[in-house]
Specification:
The structure holds 2 protein chains of 2 kinds. Chain A is 76% helix and 3% strand. Chain A is mainly α. Chain A has a single domain, classed as ABC transporter involved in vitamin B12 uptake, BtuC (Orthogonal Bundle), CATH 1.10.3470. Chain A has a two-stranded antiparallel ribbon with strand order 1-2. Chain B is mostly helical. Chain B has a two-stranded antiparallel ribbon with strand order 1-2. The radius of gyration of chain B is 19 Å and the shape is globular. Classes of the chains: A mainly alpha, B mainly alpha.
Chain lengths: 304, 317
């Protein structure tokens, strides 16, 4: 029982940290430029595909990871300077549609380049097995993901709260005009933030690639979750993104594991087996609707 | 064009289009392409769904990203009732409309408390809930969807005949468009469009803004439910994909292509998008790249869509 619970909790933590990698970039884009970017999930997909290809060509997962991050950052910077810039001043509907168009284009482009079949991306050999920690076993690769996620969260925290660039980013998120008036080039700062966000997407895509399938459409399912995260956390808030990610990761993972048996103890087996998975999969959306009902600006509003 | 003026030419053009569309089944039969009659019904049904979303986004100014939930609610209501033995359209279709309206009332009452991005996201979240609910409910077919044994019984009409069904759908769409046009020019329509332009001012003038928006949202949802009821009759299957978030996105794409806030915008967009899907796929399997590029171009350079390009669109403020 403890083994099971601990394992699921760690899985939830691992999933939450990966969500954070996506949500961190998304929340800054949202916060600074007030821009809805549905194509954020496409960057995650592109990252995973690049990682798979480079890993296969070079034989090294690490090389694949780094190449994917650099390549996706480049793609992100190109998209930002060529297209997204034109959309900042437009309304949300225009942004939703333009980036929806980007999803269509990205999905088709990936299908043209890599074909419609899922691509294989294997975890490094050395991390393929489980590790045992005082009677508790857990896959080594998932532990690595947790470690990387924590490290990135720490780095981001340090970068955003303790460096000059981070100060500009925070200033830009809370009042863009004022920041510009104070002499910060928010336009280029934003290109840099967007490229960094894209690199984090690629990191998440490459790390999750061996666990989930690398295929067209992988970006959309996780994109919605990343949106749930930043809406729960409060748009533009890094702290909110981290809290929201962990909340969503844990609630989703634990809900899926615990709800069906829990229901079985209070309802008939048929009802439980039919209702359990349904409830588990809508749990995070219920969480989000509930949080927005009581706190319409999310848990940590950036502009309060 | 003034707000009160409904130009004679425009009405004439609409009537002519209606007559041409009514004659379409005979034309297709003469050309030996009867297969396309069913496809034409599908296009008109999506036109109805897109029109219902246009009411919410274009006229009401509420950027709902969860409209597919109401579309799907209508479809599932008819399929579930059909499985329970209720095949009469007189019962099942109003039930579908009511189910969608009720869902819209619930979603709207909560979502309209938020605004901007949060509204977009919370409507999306509700639609996702509905999607996962139907995917995981085994009694409703889960992943595979819920098949409908046969088309609904509609009085003396035999809806099993593709032509009869097409004409019925056409009649419904025409009624919906007339209703929308009336609504847009009614007191309610003016108030809701004023709220779209300046919510704070309308609030200050003493209008119950929330109630107006909620009413508009519910009417849009109910109309989408009717479209869903028709669609499940056309395809014979209540498919979970009807509720998928990309479906909400597709409906949005339709109204933006056609013309947002224009009475015929949804129809124009649905016709273009579905025709493109049907025929471009023969040229290249990668036609969606083309669609994406066209959509980008429309958003960047023709924000009022095709209706805006030919002067049907709403006036730019």
């Amino acid at each position: 029982m403890t083994q099971l619970f601990l394992e699921q909790a760690l899985n939830g933590l691992q999933f939450g940290l990966m969500l954070f990698l996506l949500a961190a970039g998304l929340t800054l884009v949202f916060g600074i430029m007030d821009m809805i970017n549905l194509a954020h999930g496409s960057l995650y997909m592109i990252g995973a595909y690049l990682a798979a290809s480079v890993t296969q060509a070079s034989g090294s997962f690490l090389v694949g990871l780094v190449a994917a991050m650099l390549g996706t950052a480049l793609v992100g910077a190109l998209i930002e300077t060529s297209l997204l810039r034109r959309l900042y001043a437009r309304n949300h509907l225009a942004q939703v549609l333009a980036t929806f168009a980007l999803i269509l284009i990205a999905n088709e482009a990936v299908r043209m380049l890599w074909g419609p079949q899922p691509v294989m991306l294997n975890a490094p050999e050395a991390l393929a097995g489980p590790v045992t920690l005082g009677g508790f076993t857990y896959p080594a690769y998932r532990l690595l993901i947790i470690a990387v996620g924590l490290l990135i969260a720490l780095l981001l925290w340090w970068g955003v709260t303790r460096t000059r660039v981070g100060m500009w980013v925070r200033a830009g998120a809370s009042n863009r005009e004022m920041t510009e008036a104070l002499g910060v080039n928010v336009r280029w700062l934003f290109t840099a933030v967007f490229a960094a966000g894209a690199a984090l997407c690629a990191l998440a895509g490459a790390l999750l690639g061996p666990l989930l399938a690398v295929q067209v459409g992988m970006g959309e399912s996780i994109l919605i979750l990343a949106f749930v995260v930043i809406v729960i956390g409060g748009i533009g808030s890094m702290r909110g993104a981290l809290v929201g990610s962990l909340l969503v990761g844990l609630v989703d993972t634990l809900g899926r594991a615990a709800l069906p048996p829990l229901l079985r103890s209070v309802a008939s087996p048929e009802t439980a087996s039919s209702l359990g998975p349904a409830l588990a999969s809508i749990l995070i959306y219920l969480l989000m609707a509930g949080i927005l009902f009581w706190r319409p600006e999310g848990l940590f509003p950036a502009r309060s | 064009m003034g707000l009160y003026e409904s130009s004679r030419e425009r009405r004439g053009a609409a009537l002519l289009t209606l007559l041409l569309l009514a004659g379409l089944p005979w034309l297709l039969q003469t050309l030996d392409q009867s297969f396309y009659i069913s496809f034409a019904s599908r296009v008109l049904i999506f036109a109805l769904a897109a029109t219902s979303l246009n009411l919410v986004i274009g006229f009401g100014g509420m950027v709902s990203f969860g409209h597919a939930a109401f579309f799907g609610a209508g479809a599932y209501a008819v399929a579930v009732l059909g499985e329970a033995g209720v095949v009469s359209a007189a019962l099942a279709w109003p039930a579908a409309v009511a189910a969608a309206a009720l869902l819209a009332l619930l979603v709207g009452a909560i979502s309209l408390r938020t605004r901007g991005v949060y509204f977009i996201m919370i409507t999306l979240a509700f639609a996702q809930m509905a999607f996962y609910l139907v995917v995981s409910l085994k009694n409703w077919g889960g992943d595979d969807g819920l098949p409908l044994a046969g088309r609904s019984a509609f009085g003396p009409l035999d809806l099993g005949d593709d032509r009869t069904f097409y004409w019925l759908v056409l009649a419904m769409l025409a009624l919906a468009l007339i209703g929308l046009d009336r609504l847009a020019h009614s007191r309610f329509g003016r108030v809701i469009q004023s709220i779209r332009e300046n919510e704070v001012r309308m609030e200050a003038l003493g209008y119950p803004v929330f109630a107006y928006k909620l009413t508009c949202f519910v009417i849009g949802g109910a109309l989408a439910g009717l479209a869903g009821a028709l669609l499940v009759n056309q395809t014979g299957l209540a498919n979970p994909n009807l509720l998928h978030w990309t479906q909400s996105g597709t409906l949005m794409v339709m109204i933006v292509l056609g013309g947002i806030g224009s009475v015929f915008g949804g129809v124009v967009g649905a016709v273009i998008l579905l025709l493109a899907e049907e025929f471009l796929v023969h040229f290249s399997v990668h036609w969606q790249i083309g669609l994406g590029l066209v959509l980008l171009a429309v958003v960047l350079w023709a924000p009022l869509g095709i209706a805006g390009l030919i002067g049907w669109g709403r006036q730019r403020e």
